[in-house]
Amino acid sequence: MKTKILSLAIAFMAVSIQAQVTIPMPKSGPAPTVNIGKSNEFKLKNGLTVIVVENHKLPRVSATLTIDNPPFALGTKKGAESLLSEMLGTGTKTKSKDDFNKRIEFLGASVNFWEEGASASSLTKYFNEIFGYMADGALNPNFTEKEFDAVKKRYIEGLKSNEKSVEAAAARVTNLLVYGQNNPFSEYDTPAQIEKITLDDVKNYYNTYYKPNNAYLIVVGDISTSEVKKLAEKNFNNWETGKLTIAAFPKITEVSKTELDIINMPNAVQSVVTVAYPVNLTKNDPDFYAAQVASTILGGDFNSKLNMNLREAHGWTYGARGGVSDSRYIGRFSTNATVRNEVTDSAVVETLKEIKGMTLTKIDKQALEDVKAKFLGNFILTLERPETVANQALTKKTNKLSDNFYADYIKNINAVTVDDVLRVSKKYFRPEQAKIIVTGKTTEIAPGLEKLGFPVTYYDSYGNKIEKPVIEAKTTNVTVTQIADNYLKAIGGADKVKAVKTLLQKGKIETMGMSGDYTAKAAAPNKTVTEFTIMGMTIKQVFDGQKGFMSQAGQKMDLPADMTAPLGKTNSLFVPLSEGYKTAKVDGIVSENGVEYYKVVASDISRTDYYDVKTGLLMKTEQKQKTPQGDVVATTLHKSYKAFDGILIPTEVLAETGPQTIKVTISSAEVNKNVSDADFK
User: Does domain 40-167+179-237 have CATH number 3.30.830.10?
Assistant: First the structure.
């Protein structure tokens, strides 16, 4: 239950509320004539192309530097670009990190960097200075070993915190399965790989690829083209070109027949269902406009066929999307939906049905007109933003599009017919030649998926082939009472444990790269107070045995019923003494990393506990929690037991909920001291 308390508390730090309003679709009218805004362009002597869009409505200017290198695989040096992205902006050869950031903050501006570019935004009166800061950070970075070590450590921690994310694993392995090995679109970072990257690797990447050869500088806002030219020449003229030698990546093999790939995530209570394969579609392709419309109909918005089926008709998901995405390198067809484990196989069947349906029958003409009207409305809205003009100019250059590509966009979308939609659907929607990729708890979803009749391959969360995971559990005659008695004996003896009426624990909490003080108070049978402070923000949760609340920064939120119900039946001091344990059952003996555990399922309090067969200690807890994204399983590891006043207490608690990891380290504990009823009010 501590996991649920902590994860809900962290989530409480950032809550968003969304409202959905259904508005009747307006009737289609004649296609409006739109004027594409004007952009100015010039090139520096080093090849840097500068695109300027003047807009003097507001006294603000923004700039974006984009290095448009072709994609390439990094192999053993994968991760150097990620660490470069983290290191850029941490000071320059003339400005310390603190001075650099403080000045930008003082001017109310923003400057950002990444491995293939930079951006800056400020009020017009400060833009000359801020533009200089962006250029200085991009061209004169100060790469120090100290900063590299700090960035590397932080980045690895971030990767590790994401290892239990079902969505991250799904995206990572899907790219690998669709694009294949040694492909720039399928490479990913791992903690082990990042450990191998050195500061010299980062410097080499920067010196090789951070060049103006394929770079574009876009400036938008309250500034003249002549002013931009002066700024660009002053700050970027000395940026030296380089010689880029980029090897072509292997040819992608298309799918010959549909296959089923299952990515095993043992902690998942939901499955990510994806249907994907590579396609050849560019913006220059005559099929582009019809493919855009067909994709919108299949899975491009709320009213799409996929969403109406999986969400509205069946209630299996919060949203289903899909369609064809174009690329000047290699496009992709992909659908995506996150569904409950028990309906995973059904979701696959319905997804394939909707894809196939697009290839069999023509859509209703009025439905087509409605989709085009909405599609075009969204396009027209984007034209209200001045940066759209600049981005369109950049896209035309990088994709080698005609000058009138965007001017004719509405005309070309409106020219799409029901026959066109059927034609491109037959060409690009190929359920008979697809990869069905399902990421989830294999032991629960595989039986249903295997019945679909497709050849099945199993993978781990990093795309390595594995044998089909099976539950290896031994039967046992040991009862819950015996397991509970062994636990009480192991931590100090039943009499001594039952004499404990209150417990006060203090220590440190770490999560999302932050740390702070942690305090927990508990009183028999089920009262709890958890309080911690991170970055000056104090978060507190109280449960008085019947009801509870959470508070943060003066805001207070009552605990939901689905949380207070199990709390009320859970002993806050020692779980086996819980009322909810009276109906618990032993689900055999399971092995993990060579250690055997008794598995105790306490459905009444929504938890499963694992007790070490040899020591009797509680080592792991799994608890199902409801979240806005659906049910998730929170896993808590109880480690490093130490004696306090004769009672063994875990001093290291690792709580994992999806990608979120919380670590609590207990430094002191007091039994039957300094806890009163007033603490729980």
Answer: yes
Residue pair 220/228 in contact by the 8 Å Cβ criterion:
no
pLDDT at 409 (0 to 100): 93
Mind listing the pLDDT tens digit for each residue in 540-557?
999 998 899 999 878 889
Query: Could you tell me the pLDDT band of residue 1, with boundaries at 50, 70 and 90?
Result: very low
243-281, pLDDT tens digit by residue?
Answer: 887 777 788 888 899 999 999 998 787 899 999 999 999
| Topology agreement, domain 40-167+179-237 and domain 259-459 | yes
pLDDT at 17: 29
CA separation, residue 274 to residues 18, 177, 320, 489, 521 (Å):
26, 11, 10, 49, 45
Q: Which of 309, 293, 431 is nearest to 375 (CA)?
A: 293
| Superfamily (CATH H level) for 259-459 | Metalloenzyme, LuxS/M16 peptidase-like (3.30.830.10)
This prediction has a pTM of: 0.76
d(CA 360, CA 431): 12
Confidence of residue 494 (pLDDT cuts 50, 70, 90): very high
Q: Are 293 and 375 in contact (CB under 8 A)?
A: yes
The sheet carrying 117-123 orders its strands as: 40-43, 49-54, 215-221, 60-67, 117-123, 110-114
Q: Which residue has the higher pLDDT, 527 or 14?
A: 527
User: How is residue 199 written in tokens?
Assistant: 């500061």
Task: Mention every residue, 6+ apart, whose C-beta is less than 8 A from residue 529.
Answer: 519, 520, 521, 522, 540, 541, 542, 543, 679, 680
Say if residues 321 and 304 touch (Cβ distance below 8 Å).
yes
Task: Work out the mean pLDDT of the chain and round it to a whole number.
Answer: 91
Looking at the structure, give the CATH architecture of the domain made up of residues 480-680. Clam (2.50)
Q: Which two tokens stand for residue 522?
A: 């508990």
Query: What is the C-alpha to C-alpha distance for residues 505 and 671, in angstroms, rounded to an integer?
Result: 9
- E strands present in 21-76: 40-43, 49-54, 60-67
Strands (E), 299-357: 320-325, 331-340
- For 306, counting Cβ atoms within 10 Å of its Cβ (0-12 exposed, 13-18 middle, 19+ buried), the class is buried
pLDDT band of residue 15 (cuts 50, 70, 90) is very low
Residue 513 tokens read as: 């790269």
- Torsion sign over Cα 82, 87, 89, 93: negative
* Exposure of 348 in the CB half-sphere (CA atoms within 13 A): 30
CA dist 235 and 127 (Å) reads: 13
What average pLDDT does range 350-366 have in this prediction? 96
| Chain center to CA of 184 | 20
Give the rounded distance of the alpha carbon of 609 from its chain centre.
28
Each residue's pLDDT tens digit, 614-655: 999 999 999 877 665 556 678 899 999 999 999 999 999 998
Q: Which two tokens stand for residue 423?
A: 């034609």
Half-sphere exposure for 641 (CA within 13 Å, toward CB): 16
Q: What is d(CA 498, CA 494) in angstroms, rounded to the nearest whole number? A: 6
For the chain, domain boundaries: 40-167+179-237, 259-459, 480-680
Q: What percent of the chain is predicted at pLDDT more than 70?
A: 93
